[in-house]
Amino acid sequence: MQTLVYAFIIVNLALALFEDPAVVPLPIWATSTIEIICLSAFSVRMVHYAKVIPKDKFWKDPKNICIIVVVTLSFIDLTMYGALKSTGYFALRWSRVLRPLLLVNVTEGRQLRRAFRSIRNALPQISYVFLLFMFSVLVFSLVALKLFGKRGLLTIDGSPYFTDYLDIVFDLYVLVTTANSPDVMMPAYNYSVFFTIFFILYIVINTYTFMSFFLAVVYSNYKKHLKEEVRQLVKARRFKMCRAFSLLQEARGEGGEPVVTQAKWNHLVKLVKPNISIAHRELLWSVLDDQNKGHIGKFAFVQLADLLSIQVITVKSQPHPIQIRFPSMYNSPVSRFIRYVVHQRMFVYVYDLIILVNAVFIGLDEENPVVSNAEWGFLALYMLEIILKLYATEPRAFFARHHFWNCRQILDIIFVLRVLRLVRLVDSIKRSDSYSQMLNKSGLFHCCPLQVVYYIFAMVGMELFKGKVQFFEPNSTSRDQEYCGNPLLKGTTFAKLNYCKNNFNNVISSFIVLLELTVVNQCGFTAVTHISARIFFVLFHIVVVIIIINIFVAFILEAFLVEYTIDKSDLQTSLEKKIEELELNVQQYVPFKPAIKLFD
Amino acid sequence: MQTLVYAFIIVNLALALFEDPAVVPLPIWATSTIEIICLSAFSVRMVHYAKVIPKDKFWKDPKNICIIVVVTLSFIDLTMYGALKSTGYFALRWSRVLRPLLLVNVTEGRQLRRAFRSIRNALPQISYVFLLFMFSVLVFSLVALKLFGKRGLLTIDGSPYFTDYLDIVFDLYVLVTTANSPDVMMPAYNYSVFFTIFFILYIVINTYTFMSFFLAVVYSNYKKHLKEEVRQLVKARRFKMCRAFSLLQEARGEGGEPVVTQAKWNHLVKLVKPNISIAHRELLWSVLDDQNKGHIGKFAFVQLADLLSIQVITVKSQPHPIQIRFPSMYNSPVSRFIRYVVHQRMFVYVYDLIILVNAVFIGLDEENPVVSNAEWGFLALYMLEIILKLYATEPRAFFARHHFWNCRQILDIIFVLRVLRLVRLVDSIKRSDSYSQMLNKSGLFHCCPLQVVYYIFAMVGMELFKGKVQFFEPNSTSRDQEYCGNPLLKGTTFAKLNYCKNNFNNVISSFIVLLELTVVNQCGFTAVTHISARIFFVLFHIVVVIIIINIFVAFILEAFLVEYTIDKSDLQTSLEKKIEELELNVQQYVPFKPAIKLFD
């Protein structure tokens, strides 16, 4: 059922590919039929949901109301659009903007909703700083008007410089995004050096200080929110563990306090993690029951979940297969020397160097016979590495430890992506650190809000700008090519730099334009429509760059600080101690830092 | 003496204004003489310093050695330059780059040195991330070469697109600074939509993720460093306070433990802060000695420094002068109503609105008689505000509370800077918050390293690029104007956008160019010299944007988080409680958050 709902949502969102302006044009009746099917599916789901859930609870949930409103509005829009189109009037599919709301509001979209809730929580503070920021921009614009307005300066296009208040506000806002620096400053600078003081002040205050404020606000909110969420998670888990304990407990301790026996505990672990080895389970038990009483108290029992989250790799220490068959050969001085060399760190470094040299060769001209033959040499070297490692290490340990890179090496042999081989170098650098680990958990989850916002802005942008800018194939002979098919763009830098393909003519190109706008907010588009289209770009900058990108940065900041500031949890330390006691090879146990611990 | 040393350093640094390439050209003998005087002064100071300080200590201090080396090198450079110039050879004043080191290394530049130490501490981690980052850029460049190199694409200038490995590396590096987005992507995008995936991946990984990593590394280091420094500060202060206690103590407590009597404490406070009022001192004492014993123990004594740092404004409650002279009139219902209105929050809001309307009028056309006459109306309204406030509030309290804005209002009357009046609005917004407070302490101190780095880069840049780009006055008739006096710039965007004044022809314009490069790293300069000049721009980006700007952002982040996460210190709470107990007006006491507390 869940998959079905998601499938319908994705189909509904993907309709943007086929609706006018389309990547693959489909007739209106086709897209409408698909949309009606999707909307009906959502309606059916809501009705079903309403039957299952108590009525008052159903109507109190804003999610359900939101879905109902969106579906209703979509139906209304669809009929209106159909009616208007068939009678030949101009019609607008405005409900398309609402589609991502379905994705956010289905009960299954909990992660996404949490991300949006996090944004909503930060909004009051952000808007407060934004007010101060806009005020600062407005005052600076006023000063600029008084300073430059009467001097008759001209911009590089020959238009008057800084004479209209709203133009100045917009120009200075764009300066915050650094898109029009230093162009916006040049006329004043050419007039007098002293005017640069104004721009320097502006850049320091607005571009740097206020933008950092935004980051700081988002970051502090993100931190607060994350802490609260993790605290609740830990609390909920502890509560559940306590309930489990009260179900399993027996009064057998010294003072008659409730305890859980090893037998019950073993049974529980077997149920929860069936694929755990007996040795591993014994190890975990010996950590909890460090006095060998045969039973554990509530405090030790509650730690079970944390303990299970610590990754432990068990490697059976076995002799090498060759050693079993040819012991004298395998233990000969030459063989011992080879094994010693392979296990040396130097061996790894030498192969890193070889990979680097290989990288240089890949960069060289491919048609040179020396270069293409060298490829075979490198391949032989890599083969040799695998063979040597297999010889020196027990095969099972080899595959357990170098799991990923062995797959990589097989890829090497298949010669598919030669350049990817270089990624191996990163691995040898990363081994000493754990930058990558922190991105595993929720890195992707933070991109989702961005996609939702992109979709909404793409829909609006397509309605505003579709067809205004045309792209002509390079070998086209049309004379419109010079100005992207729009006479309004004649002579603009937009046309000169051949940005014609940066248009809102279909969903894909809209997404690409929006990505470009995220990086640098260049708004040549205002030339093709009314000047008020600037609002679109300013809004986009506020929502995406000021809020969402900052959340991404905040996520990385927090993840990084977490990595650097946590001490090992007590549990992990005692586990490692126990392992050492039992004289196992500690190196085989990959310590995993449970990020949750530090928020307690 | 200190001032003298600083004066010499500033003169020495300011020489850059007069030396070739100069803002105000002076003959070589003049600048050389000034420099010799400066260097002699430093030498004399070092000799004096060496006599005062024990020899082994003097030679162990890297600061002294650095100063000696810099002075010696400057002398050598000066003589070489003089000799070469007089014989007509080409000469380079390379020692000018070293001048800021004097500023950093004089014993008085402790703050600046601390900032540089903080940067140095962050360097190993930054360089580690930088390695990863450069590796990623190199791999992406390799992929780009393989993807685009053979397709015969052309850039907008008609030059081949992505065919040379080093060019690609540079272009992709610049894409990280967002300076050449989306230009660098357009040829590939025009060829096929699918190639944008490469650029999207690149932007997500390098422009966003890695740049955030840099910020995270700098921030975590900054935080660690700051904590350590504050901890040492607090420790040193506590140690000193303990020593002071042991000097003042008497064995008089119940258990015979050492205490300090009120008389001695009073005497101490009088010595430390002579301008503190008796009432204030009594208040502080009553906070420390909350059981009225007449003496305090070590623990309470040590808190003295923290207690003195809490700002307390004492306002004597006096009747209004008018009330004394005309009591019946001042207490009449009408007068009471006026006073009530003035003290209302609404009154402030109404005046904020008036200021806003005034702002709109300032933005309007000045020559319109209505607008210029309205100015007088606004002025009258502001006068009325002052009079009403003076009437409603006791004058001394009025000046104590609105100190700054009264000066502002006097300025208003003198009509000097009409626009600045708008800053009043910020005050009313800020009153409820304390964004400004956190910037007071060390905001400026974090700009100093930037200036040192700017100076060094300006010196190098001037040697590399001086005279290569010429600026012509707008009314000049020279035909060189089109290409900034350098045929190499013919037809480049640099010349087209009239960036001619962005040059390294003197110190001031160098600083302005460097500021522009900080905002957006546009490197049109590489056209005028060898392509290896790109290294200069990449280095500048690494040092300024990746390190120093990130330290600035880290500072703001930390300051913001500190503002938002501290609870009031215990000391402050007990002081406020005591004030309430004594039935004083709590509102008169401005609570000052001691930022140091939270690092304990």
Automatic annotation (TrEMBL), chains A, B:
The chain crosses the membrane at residues 26-44, 65-84, 126-149, 161-179, 191-219, 346-364, 376-392, 443-465, 535-557. It is a multi-pass membrane protein. InterPro entries: Ion_trans_dom, Volt_channel_dom_sf. One of its GO terms (molecular function) is monoatomic ion channel activity. The keyword Disulfide bond does not apply. Residues 3-224, 349-560 form the Ion transport domain. Its main location: membrane. One of its GO terms (cellular component) is membrane. It is found in: Membrane. Residues 1-16 form the signal peptide. It holds the Pfam family Ion_trans. The keyword Nucleus does not apply. Keywords: Membrane, Signal, Transmembrane, Transmembrane helix. This is Two pore calcium channel protein 1-like. The lineage of its organism: Eukaryota, Metazoa, Chordata, Craniata, Vertebrata.
